[in-house]
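Example with several molecule types.
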Amino acid sequence: MSARSLLARHIRGYSVRDMAVAALFLLPCLIIFAAFVLYPLGRTFHLSFFSNDLLGRPVHFVGLEQYHRIVSDPYLVGVMGTTALFLAYTVLPGIIIGLGLALLLQPKIAAIGVFRALLATPFAFSVAAAAVVFNVFYRPGIGLFNGLLQQMGLPAIDWLTSPNYALGSVAVVSIWRYMGYTLIVCLAGLQSIPDELYEAARIDGASSWHRFRYITLPLMTPTLFFLLVVSTIHSLQTFGEIKLMTAGGPVNSTTTLVYSLYKSAFAYGSSDYGLASALGVVLLLVVTVITVIQFRFLQRKVFYS
Amino acid sequence: MKTFRLFAHYAVLILAALIVLFPLYFTIAGALMTDAQLMRFPPMLVPQELHFENFAKVLDAMPLIRQFFNSIFVASAIVLGVLVTSVLAAYVLVFLNIPFKNVIFGIIMLTILVPTESLIVPKYLILVDLRWINSYPGLIVPFVASGFGIFLMRQFFLSFPKEIYEAARIDGCGHLRFVLTILVPIVRPALGVLGLYTFIGAYNMYFWPLLVINTPDMQTLQIGLQALNSSESTQPSLIYAGAAIAIAPMLVIFYLFQKSIVRGLTSGAVK
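Resulting structure tokens for the full complex:
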């Protein structure tokens, strides 16, 4: 049978020609996904059950030992605490700031477009650019921030060199850089609320607080929930700021899950791929749980509305 | 009363803009000051005279032009790859009737869900096996297919009128010809959105190039900034100048194409 007549056939109602074209079109992305997502996914689980030699080859099967380390080693338990604290510092404050700015930018007044563009600008900063610039701002002796504080008669702060402040200082940079995104999403959510609702409320004499509480907030719930999920995932993945500003210190006070993963696999030739993979699995599980909750929530929203 | 409220609103807006934009302002201002001025107390916030020589000095301090080229080249190659693979895959998902479509769609959604950081060890080991460490393919190839890109294209294609597709097919238009001559010209704005979004992400990439690249001439600009950060710590003016150069293309893109960027960013968020 010639190729031409084969392509013209149908198998179970599917055109052979269409299937051949589909295979050809899907091939490039499926190869990439197989090599750089699916295989590494399986391999991460696999590596997490082994300890490795100096060359990084998994040699000893250790079962759940790596996971046991994560829940029992004081350093790694501390890492989980730091990660949770970093989420607390960044996620809700970031959303509240973004929503606040979006509310300021909501009214259709003159030049509001300019302000919208200006306030979303931090989005243009890369992690590395933001981190190196804030590093100079945060410098202990001659830094800009301490200079400004002293000028106002306030004591200087050890922004990045004190275990009490370092995580917060890193969080500020992370919030600032992510603010452009939060703001843009909030603004889009606000703009999807019909104006008639506000007009009707105004006619009924509702105060601006009541309009916010009973119109804006309920109708923004899906947007805010979406932001809660993506900000949490984004915050969990924070790496560049920590690497460039504190390298996990002082005394591990900024070593989060992702940073400890990096450190155990790559820093100072440690090559503890087993532990790094187990930490990767933990990250994956946390992100999966968050995503599943999001799907559940969205389905319920669809059901009720 | 109404004018007063409007006035107060603008006052708050201006104050917010000043705080939010201060780091950007001082990156540029600092790039134009001398190191002595930057270390002065009380801090100097406005440059007295403009020291453009800092930009020349930072060009001497690091292979900035080469790294700039690396960043643009890598980001452009990734954009090209993502556009091609996303259009082809989304075309199959939307227009073709094939078995296992849901399985394929599931795999694509899985690639969006999985955080790349959790796979970093095996991905790195694959690159070692391929001998792609410190090479352009190592920086580009893992990113030329994007689950998000396919998903976004699929959303745009779903609103494409099916009648046009069927009419073209009946007239004997082949699949590839339909994609290239009818579909792509019509969805060009969507390609722009995806292209911009991908370019910004690729240009700003940090974690992966940090692992993959180990010589200055192969580094992207973002990793170059890190080297500047540790080697020029006594010369803050050079750090500001380097950062200003690194963010300049992003600022231009952001202000020129803000509408498209906003569309890309909110495409997953608001229905």
